[in-house]
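User: I'm curious whether this sequence folds into something compact or stays loose and floppy. Could you predict its structure so I can see for myself?
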Amino acid sequence: MKASSVRDIAAIAKSRRRHLGLSQANLAAKTGVGREWVIEFEKGKASVELGYVVRVLRVLGLSIDLQPEVLPSGPDASDLETILGSTLKEAGRP
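Assistant: Here's the prediction. I'll summarize afterward.
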C-alpha cells in the first residue's frame, strides 16, 4: 500500500489492528505506548513520534518501504546544481 501522509499511515495501521483483532489498549500494551497515544495516532495526528510509529507498525506486521517519487517533468529534484542553475539563469545571473 502507498502512504504519503501520517493520516494514510494511521489509517493503514488502524485497519491492520482491527484485522488482527487487537484493541487499542492491546496494541498500546504490546508496543509500550499509552492508549491515548494510539488514539491520537489513529486520528492522524501529524506530530506523532516516528520511533513509536515504527514500533507500532512492527507489532502489526507492517513495514515501511521508502521509494523516490517520480517527478512529472523537469529536472530531478535531487539534482540541486540543476535546480540552482536554472533559478540563477532565470534571475539573469551566470
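Summary: The mean pLDDT is 86. The helical segments are 6-19, 24-31, 35-42, 50-59, 80-90.
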